[in-house]
Amino acid sequence: MLIYLVAGEPSGDMLGARLMQAMRKIAPETEFAGVGGENMEKEGLTSLFDITDLAVMGLAEVIPSIPKVLRHIKETVNDIAEKKPDVVVTIDSWSFSERVHKALRKKGIKVLQMHYVAPQVWAWKKGRAKTMYKYIDRLLTLFPNEPAYFTPYHLEADCVGHPVIENPLISGELQVSGNIDTKDKRLILILPGSRHNEVEKLLPTFVDATKELDKKYNNLMYVLPTVKTVEKRVERILTEKNVKNIRILHSREEKGEAMLKATAAIAASGTVSLELAIMKIPHIIAYKVAPLTAWLARHLLKIKSVNLPNILLDERVVPELLQEDCNAEKIADTIGAYLDIEAVREEFNHKMDKLCQVMGVGELKPSEKAAQIIFAAIRDKNKA
Q1: What is the pLDDT of residues 92-108, one digit of tens each?
Q2: Each residue of 176-195: pLDDT tens digit?
Q3: Whose CA, among 5, 122, 217, 380, lies 20 to 30 Å from 92?
Q4: How far does the chain reach from its first CA to its final CA, in angstroms?
Q5: Edge-to-edge strands, sheet with 246-249
């Protein structure tokens, strides 16, 4: 059986890797092809192209990348036509995935088409839910409220759960390195994102925030777990700013140990906030984009918060410092509340207990549920 996977960014790459593991657990002979990053490559996938070409965030920022993205869409569709897989599963990155699915339908390529991670129609472009059935046969969602947005419009949708639920740190499956000594220190995670433009915009500000924190505290240490897509950019920025107080972590084991020992975190908006929340690591979200992107987002988004824990709990639990508020002084002051006030930390932990209940922590692993649904869909198609 040949499964064709398409993951366009690091969060999707991790989902894809876990899905590959779960599918091989059910059917060890399963083979994979498609597009992915370092985690999927470790599971044996040879990616059609480097996914860093697609890792661009922001409405204004994406425009210069359009020619390269269009070329990769064509490459992907041609590769699918040649390999004739049993199913095509695109993962997240709906703007790219949608175009792949549309092209497959337009060319009349007969293959089962599925998408993993619903586009956030509850945030913006709600009309997308009405048309997705034209391009895909089935949808796998992360949150229990999402299928209801799509099933009224002829699209079969199943909630499998969010991948942070199966974080190996939470389950105790990951062996940590033991290389991070926090004796007499409080560890602060620096998480500037996994996209090139995020790192360029956020990391210099996060570095300046550590300098502000060091003016008040003398017992802090900073670590920056990075990913392959941006590690060279991270190293260049830290070198240019002559940063000596931030340690870059590359290995999965060191990253895991840092998460377990973290006192607090400064993070870009994204899935990482949900991971920090499930692990009960007090954190703030700091984010800024190009002025045009910010203006468009303010007028188009239909949500009060930008990060998932706040959206799921329907309250501002995690502080969000956006645009002009994303500056070193405010970041340092906001993190300081976690460091100084026990009641603030306790309230955060209480809210995160509630979030774990909403997320279904402790139930069947999302990747295993997704794998079961995909195999069942292939069997049903073969019977038809």
Answers
A1: 988 889 999 999 999 99
A2: 767 888 889 999 999 998 88
A3: 380
A4: 17
A5: 246-249, 220-225, 186-191, 262-267, 283-287, 320-322
